[in-house]
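Friendly challenge for the regulars: who can give me the C-alpha cells for this chain first? No prize, just bragging rights.
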Amino acid sequence: MHPAVELRSDYDLTDIPGIVRGAVKLGLIESVTVLMVSIASHLLPYGILQTILLALIVLAGLACVILLPGVWTRARTIEGIAGAAGIGLGAAFVFMLVDVTLLQNIGTYGHRWLDIGGGSNWWYHPVWWMVGTFLSWMGAWILAMQVGKGRVASPGAAFGLVVGCSVVLAVLAVLVHFPGARWGVGTFGVAFLPGLALATALSGLGTKRA
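First reply, four minutes later:
Bragging rights claimed.
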C-alpha cells in the first residue's frame, strides 16, 4: 500500500540545514575566488597573462555560483529552484561576513574600492546579494529545464550555453558601438548577466509542460 503523500527525497532538496550548509560552502568559495583574483592582480604585471588568469578564475567562480546551488538541491520544480536561489542569497551574506572581517583588512582591495562608496560597504554588498541570488536562481532554472526536456541535468552544457550567449552579446555590443563596450574581459563581464538570462530563456524552449 502506497502512502497518499510521497516524500521526494531524490530531488528538490530544500531542507533548511541543507540550504544553510550550501550557503556556507558557496560563500566560502566566493571568498576564496575574490582572494585569488586579488592575489593574481597584485603579483602579476598587467598584460595578457594576468588577463587570462583572471578570466579563468572569474569563470570558475561564476560556474560555482551559477551551478552548484541547483546541483545541491537537485532542482526539478519551483521548489528546488527557489531553494537554489536561497543558497545564492545566503552565500552572499556569508561572503559579506568574510569580507568585512578579513578581506578588507588584509589589503585585498585597492584604496579606491571603498572610496567609490564614500568609505561605506553599502555600495556593493546589496549588489552582491542581488547578483548572487540571480546567478543561482537562473542556473537552477536551466538545470531544471534540461530535465524537463527529458534529458539528464548537465552542468557543463548549461555553463557552456551561458558563456556562449554572453560572448555573442559582448561581440554585438562592441560591433554596434554600445557605450563603453570594447574588446576585453570587462565587456564580457557586463554581458554575462543578460547572457545568463538569454541562456535561461533558450533553455525553456521545448520544455515539457506538466
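The chain has one domain: 16-203. Confidence is low (pLDDT under 50) at residues 1-7. Your move, everyone else.
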